[in-house]
Amino acid sequence: MKKLLGIALAFALGASPAIALANSTLVDQGALDGRSYHENMYKRDNCKMCHGVDAPTDYPADESCLKCHNVDKLAQKTARDGEEEWQNPHNNLHWGKEVPCVECHAEHQEKQPMCADCHTFEYPNHKK
């Protein structure tokens, strides 16, 4: 029993720095490519991590997304120059940096970006 407890404790202490590094990297880099990094949230906290409750009935609040994603860094990553400056999905003419995340992003299904309702410009790195 002591041996098993020792192994579990060693594993937990060894994993903690890796988890902390992964979390700080998410915040530092804004969004990461793809959504595979969200899979750990499903296993660890299920719906509660984003939705705040175990049995959600609505979209998560932006604050849930902003725990891991930095809006200023996202805006910087998606910035455009010249006449296309305001075609930045994370800092645009209509909403600035206040566009609700769920207007363009959906975790459980594909979603058309809100801008595409009226505009035809493309974002080559856009992930649905």
UniProtKB/TrEMBL annotation:
<keyword id="KW-0479">Metal-binding</keyword>
<keyword id="KW-0349">Heme</keyword>
<dbReference type="InterPro" id="IPR036280">
    <property type="entry name" value="Multihaem_cyt_sf"/>
</dbReference>
<keyword id="KW-0813">Transport</keyword>
<protein>
    <submittedName>
        <fullName>Cytochrome c</fullName>
    </submittedName>
</protein>
<feature type="signal peptide">
    <location>
        <begin position="1"/>
        <end position="22"/>
    </location>
</feature>
<keyword id="KW-0249">Electron transport</keyword>
<dbReference type="GO" id="GO:0042597">
    <property type="term" value="C:periplasmic space"/>
</dbReference>
<feature type="domain" description="Tetrahaem cytochrome">
    <location>
        <begin position="45"/>
        <end position="120"/>
    </location>
</feature>
<keyword id="KW-0408">Iron</keyword>
<dbReference type="GO" id="GO:0046872">
    <property type="term" value="F:metal ion binding"/>
</dbReference>
<keyword id="KW-0732">Signal</keyword>
<dbReference type="InterPro" id="IPR012286">
    <property type="entry name" value="Tetrahaem_cytochrome"/>
</dbReference>
<dbReference type="Pfam" id="PF14537">
    <property type="entry name" value="Cytochrom_c3_2"/>
</dbReference>
